[in-house]
Amino acid sequence: MVDVLSQNEIDALLAALSSGEMDAEELKKEETQKKVRAYDFKRATRFSKDHLRSLTRIHENFARLLTTYFSTQLRTFVQINVVQVEQLPYDEFIRSIPKMTILNIFEAEPLEGRMVLEVHPNVAFAMLDRLLGGTGISPSKINALTEIETIIMERIFSRALDTLQEAWKTVSDLYPRLEALETNPQFMQIASANDTIALISLSTKIGDTTGMINLCIPHVVIEPVMPRLSVHHMFVTHKKSKSIDEADALKQRVTKAKLPIIAELGHSEISVKEFLNLSVGDVIPLTKPVEQGLHILVGEKLKFIGSPGTLKGKVAVQISEIVEEGAEEQNGE
Q1: 29-49, pLDDT tens digit by residue?
Q2: Strand pairing partners for 262?
Q3: What does the UniProt keyword field contain (predicted)?
Q4: Spatial separation of the C-alpha atoms in residues 171 and 56, rounded to whole Å
């Protein structure tokens, strides 16, 4: 953005040039000199601002889905929001997290490589306390997980990864699968020390307990889908896939819907006394002649006319006529 000088600044500049305090030639030389910008090779830029904005949008949706999921599972107030999306070296991320934390290491096919969902102990143990019947308070002292606690956490976070699949749907069809749950960052090696990662930080509140959930995505893992993270691609893809996906989903649901089909032989009316006096061998006359076709109803609507028979030893009905719209009322009469 170009700075616009005020009238006072312009007058002061002209006065300095006319008095000799400033030299116009020196100003021109300053403009032609190359400007040097510091570059840290340990913090290589792999994600553009466009990529980071797209990751922010994706994981804002992920945060909303996680809020709904954990609120349902824990049956208490849960609020999750994206605080920051940044890129940094992998070893810097490892140094920034607690020595004892919950590390959900997972893969997301078809991407190759591993990612991690790091959950601060305050948050993880508050969830555990709530799931085990408590009020959702994190203990003052964090101990190692027992086998039962590990299984419970694996289950809840494995299902939480399904919301990540939903959030990434506009970019790519990913299938996250929890691979392991660790508590010591030193035992986790999903990338080289200097590899650039995208770190999505989510502030989490469960009742009165607060903490952070960090999603670490190495650049080498999502590099194959990086071109799809552009704003233009996401907008066009989302617009096209939304209408197509909704139509296909509706079509699939309609075609899979089950409908009852009734072949009506006829009907009759008898009194309660006659009904009570029925015995084996009695005949109940129907109102419909034998030569008249059977009414075949789909749900409660008359749709076909058919004739009774058998097929491979089973009772069957052969459709002989399709009842057109409007004609069903006349046949019903």
Answers
A1: 655 555 666 655 556 677 888
A2: 297
A3: Cell projection, Cilium, Flagellum
A4: 13
